[in-house]
């Protein structure tokens, strides 16, 4: 006698594992697409081409329209900025730094920040610009 259960053919495909994998991929895409470097809101000048520096250890230095300097959204003076960057350099010698200067800021304030970065011998420095309109 033959058991009828053994002769049954499976007509469908179990897509539950596929849906699980797709949900994980979707969540990872959403998280990486919305990740940004911490900072304050500044009106960036426009450039013809831009380079993305979305690295988790990137330090963001922002200069707002009033000339105030911020390190990762926290207001600092230039001596405090130098001290914090020296501490970070001791922990990670080759970390990237981005400088975000407001389009209305006085040019010498951004140059002071760039001079400080040069004195600290930080080689991975980028200037953030906005996309042209």
Automatic annotation (TrEMBL):
Keyword Cell membrane among record annotations: yes
Species whose genome carries this gene: Alcaligenes endophyticus
Assembly mode: The accessory proteins ExbB and ExbD seem to form a complex with TonB.
Keyword Transferase: no
Keyword terms: Cell inner membrane, Cell membrane, Membrane, Protein transport, Transmembrane, Transmembrane helix, Transport
Bilayer topology annotation: Single-pass type II membrane protein
The protein's role, per its UniProt record: Involved in the TonB-dependent energy-dependent transport of various receptor-bound substrates.
Protein name: Biopolymer transporter ExbD
Family membership: Belongs to the ExbD/TolR family.
